[in-house]
Design goal:
By secondary structure, this protein is an alpha+beta fold. Helix content is about 25%, strand content about 30%. The protein has helices at about 35-45, 50-65, 115-130, 145-150, and strands at about 25-30, 65-75, 75-85, 100-105, 135-140, 155-160, 160-165, 165, 175-180. The radius of gyration is 16 Å and the shape is globular. The two termini are about 25 Å apart.
Length: about 190
């Protein structure tokens, strides 16, 4: 979640040759323990660090009571995954308690196919079953993620050097919120 994170998608809001979405071929589901090696390798490829370190973090999230880990697969191969979790109020930076989208990773070869959007919509539905507001924080330098969340109905609540204790390279992040749509109205 830093501005120099190699996992940020290159910002290209209107690329000349955007690949066609493959949504019909993508299967999104809750991750299981046997998904961890593939997800850890994906995370290490996309964001750096070792697969062993990522595997430990993913295992902890899978075992946590108020966490969600989901995976996106194409023909049985993991091409993306994402997390959501309940975080308590963080007095140090004013971030409220609630459900947060805490990360989405898409294999660099599969970016710009709509996979991050599918993963985010799935997490939004899961979180809205548990509460009426949903939060996320994004580095101000991650313009692709800011666009994704804005397109899905998130609005900026605050900017700051940290949210939920996470500091941002470049010194600035955005705290975003989306509210559950009223009954009978589909989400964005």
């Amino acid at each position: 979640m830093t501005g120099t994170d190699p996992g940020f998608a290159a910002y290209a809001p209107s690329p000349a040759a955007r690949p066609a979405p493959v949504t019909g071929a993508v299967v999104v589901a809750e991750a299981a323990e046997d998904d961890v090696p593939a997800l850890a390798a994906l995370q290490a490829r996309a964001r750096g660090g070792s697969a062993d370190e990522w595997a430990g973090r993913i295992h902890r999230a899978l075992r946590a009571e108020r966490d969600l880990v989901i995976t996106a697969k194409v023909h049985g191969t993991a091409v993306g995954y994402a997390n959501a979790t309940y975080l308590p109020e963080h007095a140090g930076d004013g971030a409220p308690a609630g459900y947060y989208l805490t990360g989405v990773t898409v294999d660099p070869d599969w970016r710009r196919h709509g996979i991050a959007t599918l993963l985010t919509r799935w997490r939004m539905a899961w979180a809205w079953e548990r509460g009426s507001a949903l939060w996320c924080f994004v580095s101000a330098a991650n313009r692709a993620s800011l666009d994704l969340h804005r397109d899905l109905g998130f609005g900026e609540v605050a900017s700051g050097a940290s949210f939920q204790g996470v500091e941002f390279t470049g010194g600035e992040g955005r705290l975003l919120r989306a509210d559950r749509p009223p009954a009978g109205r589909p989400p964005t």
